[in-house]
């Protein structure tokens, strides 16, 4: 096992990883920017080292600084958390070259799954269902139009380097195809310096269902069931739950086995997520693979009783998985609400500032993952997520009741948050009926949205 791990991240996930290290008897090293001197991860780790000024590209994205800090502090491994360098193949490769264990999959796999059109092709060849569409990428309007005509409209135009909705457009017919293709491609060239595009049939009002997988260095791969992340706003998840109301045990088995097959097809190692779209007729299609631990991993921990961060560290250190698929049992229902420093009344614009007072709920089945404290000054340079409120109940209705109670008790003073917006979602009849798809917020909260998608 590792003696010392450096955490190349900040905020609640850095705190979460420091706690896992401490429980495992592993020394933790925090890295922090000049804006994060008083942040909880800096204060909580066994050691901390400043890696540069506030802007992310000078600190949390600064590979050379982070590697130098790892060597200087004599850490043997780096946990990248999510965001920042977590899915940066170059960084994983530099770790490999420096003989530092990157707690995640290999650089090769990160690179392969980061290329969405190649990932799609790999999955087609592995017999994993994908959305009907092209097998090969396209580069020009002419070849794309031919493909779109044969797929049939509406079609989804996607950037191979995209994800999270960037470089993505819907075309409803041949009239609007050219403009949409060019816009999507332009966005991709600008954002990712890549003109590689691919096309899929547009799936209407799908659910976003993702399967958590775990894999060790010995070819063992298991899945830990699904998370339903359909409630999103502009491709940012707002509320997640496990299990999904849309999935019966037979479908779970089928999708889970497919997720495991997808991971095995690329020789996956460590924790990962297979994203599927689920259509109204319960057909499921592979979308993307995320090669990192995800924000919403706690709901999977609540229903499985596992600690995903510890599992990541163990398999990265060369230990075999601690459990087999047969030993994975799902219990009850978990919900996570993301509490952000933002103003829903003003188009959800971020609202950093000083938190004057915090009160967090507690009790049976209530979990709070956060880095905030009373008198904490939120730096304006980073993500606006402040706190993840997670509840676990014996069934969905009791989890919903517990979340409503916990949201009602949570107090964050001094700044604007989306707490009331979350409460409104929980109180909505459609939500309570489990009648949710990726258009939920647009459909029922259009007064908040101030625009499309
Ligand atoms: C789709 C789709 C419908 N049909 N692909 C959005 C981000 C990226 N991961 C893929 N996305 C979508 N791809 C086809 N062929 C609808 C979406 C989509 C979506 C997916 C998951 C969660 C929320 C979403 C919101 C809008 C669109």
Could you provide a short overview of the structure?
By secondary structure, this protein is of the alpha+beta class.
Secondary structure layout plus pairing:
Blueprint: E1 4-7, H1 11-24, E2 27-33, H2 40-44, E3 47-52, H3 63-72, E4 77-79, H4 89-97, E5 101-102, H5 107-114, H6 116-125, H7 141-151, E6 155-163, E7 166-171, H8 174-192, E8 197-201, E9 207-215, E10 221-233, E11 236-242, H9 249-265, E12 270-278, E13 284-290, H10 297-304, H11 308-316, E14 333-340, E15 342-343, E16 349-350, E17 357-359, E18 366-370, E19 385-393, H12 396-409, E20 411-413, H13 419-427, H14 429-432, H15 440-444, H16 446-449
The structure holds ligand MV4.
Describe the structure.
By secondary structure, this protein is an alpha+beta fold. Helices cover 34% and strands 26% of the residues. The chain has helices spanning 11-24, 40-44, 63-72, 89-97, 107-114, 116-125, 141-151, 174-192, 249-265, 297-304, 308-316, 396-409, 419-427, 429-432, 440-444, 446-449; strands at 4-7, 27-33, 47-52, 77-79, 101-102, 155-163, 166-171, 197-201, 207-215, 221-233, 236-242, 270-278, 284-290, 333-340, 342-343, 349-350, 357-359, 366-370, 385-393, 411-413. Helix 4 (89-97) runs antiparallel to helix 5, helix 7 (141-151) packs across helix 8 (174-192) and helix 12 (396-409) runs antiparallel to helix 13. The protein is globular. The chain starts with a strand and ends with a helix. The structure holds ligand MV4. Residues 131, 156, 163-165, 200-203, 206, 208, 232, 235, 277, 287-288, 438 line the site of ligand MV4. Ligand MV4 binds next to strand 6, strand 8 and strand 13.
């Amino acid at each position: 096992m590792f003696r010392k791990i450096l955490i190349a991240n900040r905020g609640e996930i850095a705190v979460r990883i420091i706690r896992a290290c401490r429980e495992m008897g592993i020394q933790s090293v925090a890295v922090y920017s000049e804006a994060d001197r008083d942040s909880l991860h800096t204060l909580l780790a066994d050691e901390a080292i400043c890696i540069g000024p506030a802007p992310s590209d000078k600190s949390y994205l600064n590979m050379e600084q982070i590697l130098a800090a790892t060597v200087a502090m004599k850490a043997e491994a780096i946990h990248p958390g999510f965001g920042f360098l977590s899915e940066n193949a170059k960084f994983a490769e530099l770790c490999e070259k420096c003989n530092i264990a990157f707690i995640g999959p290999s650089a090769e796999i990160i690179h392969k799954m980061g290329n969405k059109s190649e990932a799609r092709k790999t999955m087609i060849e592995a017999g994993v269902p994908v959305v009907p569409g092209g097998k090969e990428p396209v580069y020009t309007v002419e070849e794309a139009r031919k493909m779109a005509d044969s797929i049939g409209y509406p079609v989804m135009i996607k950037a191979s380097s995209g994800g999270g909705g960037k470089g993505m457009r819907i075309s409803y017919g041949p009239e609007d195809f050219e403009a949409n293709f060019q816009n999507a491609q332009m966005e991709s060239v600008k954002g990712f310096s890549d003109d590689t595009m691919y096309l899929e049939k547009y799936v209407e009002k799908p659910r976003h269902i993702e399967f958590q997988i775990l894999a060790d260095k010995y070819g063992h791969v298991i899945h830990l069931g699904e998370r339903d992340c359909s409630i999103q706003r502009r491709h940012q998840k707002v509320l997640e739950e496990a299990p999904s109301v849309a999935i019966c045990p037979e479908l779970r088995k089928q999708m889970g086995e497919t997720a495991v097959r997808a991971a095995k097809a690329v020789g996956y190692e460590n924790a990962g997520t297979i994203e599927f779209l689920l259509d109204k007729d319960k057909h499921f299609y592979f979308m993307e693979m995320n090669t990192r631990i995800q924000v919403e991993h706690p709901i999977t921990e609540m229903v499985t009783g596992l600690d995903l961060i510890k599992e990541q560290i163990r398999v990265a250190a060369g230990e075999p998985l601690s459990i087999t698929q047969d030993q994975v049992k799902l219990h009850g229902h978990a919900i996570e609400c993301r509490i952000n420093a933002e103003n829903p009344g003003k188009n959800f614009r971020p609202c950093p500032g000083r938190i004057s007072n915090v009160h967090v709920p507690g009790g049976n089945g209530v979990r709070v993952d956060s880095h905030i404290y009373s008198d904490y000054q939120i730096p304006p340079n980073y993500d606006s997520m402040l706190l993840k409120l997670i509840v676990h109940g014996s069934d969905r209705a009791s989890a919903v009741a517990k979340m409503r109670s916990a949201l009602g008790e949570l107090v964050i003073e001094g700044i604007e948050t989306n707490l009331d917006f979350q409460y409104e979602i929980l109180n909505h009849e459609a939500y309570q009926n489990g009648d949710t798809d990726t258009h939920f917020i647009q459909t029922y909260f259009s007064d908040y949205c101030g625009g499309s998608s």
